[in-house]
Backbone:
């Protein structure tokens, strides 16, 4: 009987090999999606033009089109990885399966901070947008957690989701109120508010890249601490973990990622909700594997959504934020209705 149990139980080495193989497969899929992103658009291009554009040549219209799509693809990958990873971190920090930068209002808070800086303080420096967005994301996260912690039971998943939804609606209304009297900035803000990567440039990427790299590093270093927090605050403290510090460091990484992604692309929703759930079904709850999976899957999802937006509305295109909302809203309803959501 014991031999049968040992045979049925997966060996740790085999499970580790399976997860490493899945991570490599995700990286290959992401590479394929990147090539698809630079190839698909209003103008069709062949592989010779793609190779020539990657080599720095822009002698033809097709090569010029590929050179424009390259920063768009890179930004979509970075933003998708940032949102997927920050969603996994937020779900781990709050132990809330519904946590997401959009649902908790963090993206909306970052957007409101950028709008206030733009409309009331005449903010014009590109680097300032990232700092202001990160500040807005951080203050919103603290505010939502404080509201959700009130009353009996502390910060339960339901109260955090309700506090985040209410904050997101309120901040969206405040944003509109700030923009309405300012016709000079209203047009550009509306397209940014939807969320997209259509106007990506290498200058924008260089602006947000240091903040994203810092956020990625902080989040990946926090993987073991999140595993301890998943056991509960009392047990984590008994294992020698400083719960408040661990939670604060992980949240800082998520805030850096959310703020930088929002400053560059606008408030894109549902990526941070869908990706961690799907990855958790594949590799389980160990954050040492979950976080890299979430980063690669988020990057692939946002690139795929961007490509679909170009195909569906040809010769025009749908912003990536609209595509993720179409997919993410039914997914959110499914998670809420799923009876076994606590097991995720």
Residues:
């Amino acid at each position: 009987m014991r031999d049968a149990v040992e045979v049925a139980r997966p060996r740790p080495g085999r499970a580790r090999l399976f997860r490493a193989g899945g991570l490599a497969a995700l990286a290959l899929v992401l590479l394929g999606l990147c090539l698809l992103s630079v190839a698909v658009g209003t103008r069709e291009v062949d592989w010779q033009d793609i190779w020539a554009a990657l080599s720095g040549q822009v002698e033809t219209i097709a090569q010029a089109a590929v050179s424009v799509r390259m920063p768009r693809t890179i930004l979509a990958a970075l933003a998708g990885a940032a949102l997927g990873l920050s969603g996994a971190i937020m779900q781990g920090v709050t132990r809330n399966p519904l946590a997401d930068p959009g649902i908790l209002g963090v993206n909306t808070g970052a957007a409101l901070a950028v709008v206030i800086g733009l409309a009331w303080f005449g903010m014009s420096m590109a680097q300032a947008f990232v700092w202001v967005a990160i500040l807005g994301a951080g203050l919103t996260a603290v505010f939502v957690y404080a509201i959700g912690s009130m009353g009996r039971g502390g910060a339960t998943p339901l109260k955090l989701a309700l506090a985040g939804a209410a904050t997101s609606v309120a901040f969206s209304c405040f944003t509109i109120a700030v923009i309405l009297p300012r016709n000079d900035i209203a047009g550009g803000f509306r397209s940014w508010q939807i969320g997209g990567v259509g106007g990506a440039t290498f200058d924008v990427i260089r602006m947000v890249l240091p903040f994203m790299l810092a956020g990625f590093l902080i989040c990946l270093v926090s993987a073991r601490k999140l595993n301890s927090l998943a056991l509960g605050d009392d047990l984590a403290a008994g294992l020698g973990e400083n719960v408040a510090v661990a939670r604060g460091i992980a949240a800082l990484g998520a805030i850096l990622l959310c703020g930088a992604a929002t400053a560059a692309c606008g408030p894109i929703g549902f990526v941070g909700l869908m990706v961690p759930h799907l990855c958790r079904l594949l590799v389980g709850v160990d954050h040492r594997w979950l976080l890299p999976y979430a980063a690669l899957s988020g990057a692939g999802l946002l690139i795929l959504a961007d490509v679909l937006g170009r195909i569906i509305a040809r010769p025009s295109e749908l912003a990536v934020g609209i595509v993720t909302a179409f997919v993410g809203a039914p997914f959110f309803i499914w998670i809420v209705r799923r009876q076994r959501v606590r097991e995720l």
